[in-house]
Amino acid sequence: MAHGKTETLIPDAAGIARAADLLRTGQLVALPTETVYGLAGDATSNIACARIFEAKGRPRFNPLIVHLPSVGAAEAIAAIPDTARQLAAAFWPGPLTMVLPLRDGHGLSPLVTAGLDTVAIRLPAHAVMRAVLGAVGRPVAAPSANPSGRISPTTADHVRAGLDGRIAAILDGGPCNVGVESTILAPADTGTRLLREGGIPREAIEALTGPLVSDTTPGKVQAPGQLSSHYAPTTQMVLNSALDDPDAILVGFGPGTAELTLSDSGDLTEAAANLFRILHEADALAEARGATAIHVARVPHEGLGRAINDRLTRAAAPR
Ligand code: TXA
Ligand code: MG
């Protein structure tokens, strides 16, 4: 849907009130969260949810995450098994999403769940997002605020570059400090499945739940983040730890001579926070120089490194 002009809002009382008003009238607003910017709409409104799919060019079979301010609000729309309750106590608010059985009378648009009998729920930690959720007083659906399949946005400028003119407003809360999307779990008292690696390291979850069952096979369409090609720059991306192609834009990790780096000091938390910004920058550089490839170093496969390698692998997958 063409909107013409996309407003920029600042995260003061007036900006938060304006964002909440727009959401209550079915408009879309990009909001900051600690993971990535979300493209928010009223999760109880069919029109708002349809607009989310349209603005992103997102396939309709991909369900949306519902953002809520409290466990009490989650209880109103979903059943929460004991395992989920323990995970909520440990990691909410924060970069964790749980897929839970829907309750009767949940009031959500059927577009949110794409017809499934489960719903993905997250309680974000970002103060601005929480203020908006409080002011809206309704569940808010929010996928990442990028055109479907492209690099996720961690700044308001990234959102504008992808969605300008297609949404009512962007609330600029500065850069996102986690930088990769939430970890998605399907908790059950008989065993918890990991659907997407993300901002809470797998090891931290397993310390609480015991071994997770991985269900993140690329290509098996359960979640768009599970599509084999996703998070992709325009320029072809290659995973190459040697970074030995002088014609490519090189993105390193740790000390080295690459032009761009995920983290100079080899810190995975910093690398996660930088990941999507660096991919946006590498893509812009490649375009400016006519380079045909971006080569990126792999990072250690532990902690947040698992989510980073997951995003890099999908960004490098054949289109
Ligand atoms: O950090 C995040 O999670 C960000 C911020 C904005 O909250 N949001 C985000 O949303 O990454 P999105 O739409 O890009 O990814 C949502 C994922 C998708 O992979 C979707 O398929 C999955 O959640 N999902 C939603 N409902 C589901 C369900 N009922 N069962 C399985 N997967 C589900
Ligand atoms: Mg996304």
How many domains comprise the coordinates? 2
Largest sheet: 11 strands, mixed
Strand content: 15-25%
CATH topology of the largest domain, by name, is: DHBP synthase
- Span between termini: 26 Å
**Total strand count, please?**
15
Spatial order of the strands forming the largest sheet: 1-8-2-3-7-4-6-5-9-10-11
Overview of the molecule:
- This protein has 319 residues and is an alpha/beta fold.
- Helices cover 32% and strands 17% of the residues.
- It folds into two domains: 7-214, DHBP synthase (Alpha-Beta Complex), CATH 3.90.870; 236-316, no CATH class.
- It has ten helices and 15 strands.
- The strands form two sheets. It has an eleven-stranded mixed β-sheet, sandwiched between helices. The protein has a four-stranded parallel β-sheet with strand order 12-15-13-14, covered by helices on one side.
- Strand 2 (29-31) and strand 3 form a beta hairpin.
- Helix 1 (13-24) crosses helix 6 (127-136).
